[in-house]
Amino acid sequence: MSIAGTNGTLSNRLTDPFLLGRVHAKTGTLKGVRTLSGYLDNPNYGKMVFSMMVNQPGLSGKVMTNAIDDMVLELARVKNCG
């Protein structure tokens, strides 16, 4: 799997300093669809596995990709409630 901001299809994605090297994932694309599945190293929880799909033919690929990347960043920032 590619590593955020480092190589492969994620070399130019998930480049927020908080995510660099913490996300290992596989991208997927079809017309009107963008996906990202993998895992991330959350400093509060350890490894978190995720799979996301945006299926919205009316949106550009960039908008869908940015939405997924924003959700991954939020997952990485999740903190313990207790």
What low-confidence regions span 5 or more consecutive residues with pLDDT below 50?
none
Overall tally of domains: 1
H and E string: EEEEH
Structural class: alpha+beta
Strand content: 35-45%
| Contiguous helical run count | 1
Distance between the termini: 33 Å
Structural overview:
With 82 residues, the protein is of the alpha+beta class. It has one domain (2-77). The chain is built from one helix and four strands; from the N terminus they run ββββα. Strand 2 (23-30) and strand 3 (33-42) form a beta hairpin. The longest helix has 17 residues, at 61-77.
Topology, element by element:
Elements: E1 2-3, E2 23-30, E3 33-42, E4 46-55, H1 61-77
Antiparallel strand pairs: 1-2, 2-3, 3-4
Tags for this model:
alpha+beta, 1 helix, 82 residues
Provide a brief overview of the structure.
With 82 residues, the protein is α+β, with helices and mostly antiparallel strands. Helix content is 21%, strand content 37%.
